[in-house]
């Protein structure tokens, strides 16, 4: 049983990676499929498959959301999400649909069977606003943490910089605390620099202890 209890109105860092650190996104269509799933499975009412939901969307049927997506980053072999729960068991339902639907897509596409992710998704409660702000920087710019360039990742960073016409993320949760997106950009880049600096110093200290 999972130790953490999800509560409405609380924020959580959700993450997972491929089993044996394998790639879970192999091309742009895999990234697009996961992002589409994030948008469409975030619904109180079960939608069935994405194909079935395409007909429902044509009718313009509105629906309440299970979670607010605050920020995300999809890297080749792992992902990070910041979610705010909106409905009872919302995060569990959302992640169950998201993971199950994507694994089915991936296994059919690549003619494989079995688990794709390394066990159940991991979850950490974000227990302060300061933590939320700095974690948003870490998630939005996570490709820089792993030195991933080009088209080999997807993140909500451009949404925060107002470069996307549409947005998966509930941007106002973070951006309302800054004068504009430029001020948030400066904060996020400075925060990431501090995070990476601490990681590097920790590695150096661990090296000294092993000598």
Could you provide a short overview of the structure?
This protein is α+β, with helices and mostly antiparallel strands. Helices cover 45% and strands 15% of the residues. Strand 2 and strand 3 form a beta hairpin.
Distance between the termini: 40 Å
The SSE string, one letter per element, is EHHEEHEHHEHHH
Radius of gyration: 18 Å
Query: What is the CATH class?
Result: Alpha Beta
Care to count the β-strands? 5
The helix tally amounts to: 8
Low-confidence parts, pLDDT < 50 over ≥5 residues? none
Q: What portion of residues belong to β-strands?
A: 5-15%
Number of domains: 1
Could you say which structural class the secondary elements and strand pairing correspond to?
A: alpha+beta
CATH-level-2 architecture: 2-Layer Sandwich
Strand order of the largest sheet: 4-1-3-2-5
- Helix share bin: 40-55%
CATH fold-type name: Alpha-Beta Plaits
What global shape is seen?
globular
**Overall average residue pLDDT:** 89
> How would you sum up the major sheet?
5 strands, antiparallel
